[in-house]
Input
Amino acid sequence: MKIAIIGSGYVGLVTGACFSELGNKVICADNDARKINGLKKGLVPIYEPGLEELIVRNARNKRLFFTASIKEAVKSSEIIFIAVGTPPLENGEADLTGIENVAHSIAVNMKGYRLIVEKSTVPVETGDWVKHTITHYIKDKTKFDVASNPEFLREGSAIDDFMHPDRIVIGVESKKARDLLTELYRPFKVPLVITNIKSAELIKHASNAFLATKISFINAVSQICDKVGADVEEVARGMGLDKRIGPSFLKAGIGYGGSCFPKDLDAFVHISEKTGYDFKLLKSVAKVNIEQLSSVLKKIKDSLWIIKGKTIAILGLAFKPNTDDIRNAPALRLVRMLQEEGARIKLYDPQAINKARKVLDKVIFCADAYSTCRSADCLFIATEWDEFKELDFVKIKKLLRRPLIVDGRNLYDPEVLRKLGFSYISIGRKKV
Ligand code: UGA
Output
């Protein structure tokens, strides 16, 4: 099928590359001409395992194209996915300027029937606005449909998530739109959830909000574990084996971050308010998330006594492993909080250092975990990268000025570290 993707960011590029891999002819558009020129040369602007390979292969096989012209993209495709950003406004509401601009451009460039599909995460009723906008600006009586097809991929495992989803959600309001999207997704042998547009839009926000709720729930439980000497890992395992609860997204830590959960939760609270419903539950989820990081800072303070003048080695900055994304990364906030208290920060992340340099001041960026630990008063684990799971702690103990580890991701066995002579503090587990 002939597909256009408007917006070549995270979701747009992964969607475009994967649809082309499945044999469709895909054109990815973006108004950032530099990005498009780079993509034409095989330069992928984001770090995502496997993405570059997929883009290069499909571009070479003439199934994947890039353009800085929306007109060209609209002209050459029947299904147009909108995958532009919906960043938060100051009040938490999603900024839909990008979506409106794209809808307008599609309207003025559309010469025959087109199916316009929302792929970006958008507030419920955005589909109606897209429809109104196109109807308003369209030049003649050209027919079109609008649909919603939210994406559930995670950074770091985006390609696998796209190719092997748990379900595909399609919100449609005409048979033609339904048939086109069913045909497009025919290669996927997974449940197809076909709803109206508003339900599809809500499924996305409700799913992200629910996952964030699970995380804040287990983080809240970790607070109790800390107080009474229980082990949050054991509690989570015991809960997760109940099929009604499930084991995933019950990992206690320093709180969720990234470009989706914090933003989508705020947007969902805002949408609810607009409908007249006060979504108190989600407000608490966000509050617990912020407080989790403050409690982590307190753990560091309680161990070091005075933070001012101390050197803290931090391993990991990305909001989770296998990505260089530091948007809303809890570790970024922690670095700033520690700096405000007068700490000197040494930092290493396998992928995020280039991005970190642009936003952090007075941080000593290191080339690996060991040089980060040299002469530090405390080692803090912020992101659970695989390479941090098997560190040589005998070496680390010699490098640190003081054998103190605060582990924000519960990566290590407390007993093993205790035997090695460390003071080891983690989240919701026995302090040794
Ligand atoms: C999230 C959703 O998982 C995707 O389904 C969705 O498509 C995406 O948002 C989106 O809306 O685009 P993502 O933000 O890439 O994906 O990352 P997740 O793997 O969900 O992790 C989010 C945050 O939660 C990370 O900071 C992670 O460290 C934290 N987390 C996750 C925990 O603290 N504990 C857990 O048990 C799981």
Q: What stands out?
A: The chain has two domains: 2-195, 210-425. Residues 210-425 form a domain with the Rossmann fold fold (CATH 3.40.50.720).
